[in-house]
Amino acid sequence: MKPHRGTLILVLGILGLIVCAPCGIVAWVLGSGDLKQIDAGQMDPDGRGLTNAGRICGMIATILLVLGIVVGIVLAALGVLGAAMSGH
């Protein structure tokens, strides 16, 4: 049975929320894969809680990253539209 990576996934999830949003994507992907392995009995089940918490943090970080990108695109488009309408 493989050892769990719950601590690593949780750290990546927290880093995704606080410092570097792409770490959240990594936490989400690793967490989902590890939970499947835990459910299949291939990985140490003691790390389930840490792995799930890290995966959830990763999900939140990824959603916030996507929302930030969408808001940035909308604001840039509004800026371009506003500049075009003002004639400058």
Estimate the strand proportion. Answer: under 5%
User: Biggest sheet, open or closed, and with what strands and sense?
Assistant: none
- What is the tally of helical segments? 3
Shape: rod-shaped
| Oligomer kind | single chain
- Uncertain parts: none
Classification by helices and strands: mainly alpha
Record field, number of beta strands: 0
Q: Considering DSSP H and I runs of 4 or more, what fraction of the residues is helical?
A: over 70%
- Rg (CA only): 19 Å
Roughly how many Å apart are the termini?
66 Å
> Could you give the order of the helices and strands?
HHH
Query: Mean pLDDT, nearest integer?
Result: 95
How many discrete structural domains? 1
